[in-house]
Design a protein that fits this description.
This protein has a single domain, classed as Dihydrofolate Reductase, subunit A. With 160 residues, the protein is α/β, with parallel strands linked by helices. β3, α2 and β4 form a beta-alpha-beta unit. The protein is built from 4 helices and 10 strands; from the N terminus they run ββαβαββαβαββββ. The protein is 20% helix and 33% strand.
């Protein structure tokens, strides 16, 4: 069961200059809870934006550079190889970035998305979600508050 997990804006924005555009503590807390104890697969640029391996997770980094080393991480040269190295985990998570998400859509069983109800200027975008392939199975809506500046929703899609 391969899960894509992402936070995306109304205009499908993911980030700009290899950084998140918004700060939603509720989303970060949920992300940590959901992914802890699992394999997390990400591209090199996403890993570099984090600056270090995510704790309590097996970090798998995808890089075309055969000499790339990330201490404390597994490095693979393709998404397929990364997924293969996570096969002992019943629910590995794919963390992005944009190009990895695009490739991963054909392998994923579930999309675990946080929708931020705002448009942002960005240079990285999540691919369009095809309603013929993906069915929404759950949604929790939240209003902005003193800690979370924007309205947001946690939404799960399953492959049809």
């Amino acid at each position: 069961m391969i899960i894509i997990i992402a936070a995306i804006a109304q205009n499908n924005a993911l980030g700009k200059d290899n950084q998140l555009i918004w700060h939603l503590p509720a989303d970060l807390k949920r992300f940590k809870k959901v992914t802890s104890g699992h394999h997390v697969i990400m591209g090199r640029k996403t890993y570099e934006s984090l600056g270090k391996p995510l704790p309590n997770r097996t970090n798998i980094i995808i890089s075309r550079n055969k000499n790339f080393i990330a201490e404390g991480c597994i490095v693979k040269n393709s998404l397929e190889d990364a997924i293969e190295s996570a096969k002992k985990d019943s629910t590995p998570f794919i963390l992005g970035g944009a190009e990895i998400y695009k490739q991963a859509l054909e392998f994923a069983d579930i999309l675990d998305l946080t929708f931020v109800h705002h448009d942002f200027e960005a240079d990285a975008f999540f691919p369009e979600i095809d309603p013929d392939i993906w069915a929404e199975t759950s949604r929790q809506d939240f209003k902005a508050d003193e800690k979370n500046k924007y309205d947001y929703s946690f939404v799960t899609y399953k492959r049809t």
